Amino acid sequence: MVSSSQTIKLSMEFADAASWHCALVLLVLVLIGSIGANSVSSEEHARGRQIFNRPCDEIYVVGEGETLHTISDKCGDPFIVERNPHIHDPDDVFPGLVIKIIPSTDEKL
C-alpha cells in the first residue's frame, strides 16, 4: 500500500516535471516567435525605405505623371521649390528631373 507521504512525493515530482516541460515549450514558442518577428519578407525588403518611414530618398528623380504637389505629399517635403533653385517654374516639372527632398520633422504618420 502507498502511504500518503509517498503519494505527496510522487505528486510533487510529477508537478515538477510538468512545470519543466511547460517552461521548455514556452521557451521554444518565444524563440520561434522572435525569429518570425525579425525576419523580413521579400515584399518588405523591396519596400525597405518604408520600413524606416522614409518614402523618398534625399535625391529624388521625378517620374511620369508626377507634380511637385504629389511629390510633396508623398515625401513629406512642403519646401521643394525653395530647396531646388534650378526649378524656375513649378508647373514645368518633367520626368527625369532630379530634385532634393528633405522630409519635414512634423511629418504625418
TrEMBL record:
Molecular functions (GO terms): transferase activity
Superkingdom, natural source: Eukaryota
A matching Pfam family: LysM
LysM domain span: 60-101
Database matches in InterPro entries: LysM, LysM_dom_sf
PANTHER family, per the entry: EMBRYO SAC 1, OS04G0572800 PROTEIN
This protein's name: UDP-glycosyltransferase 76C4-like
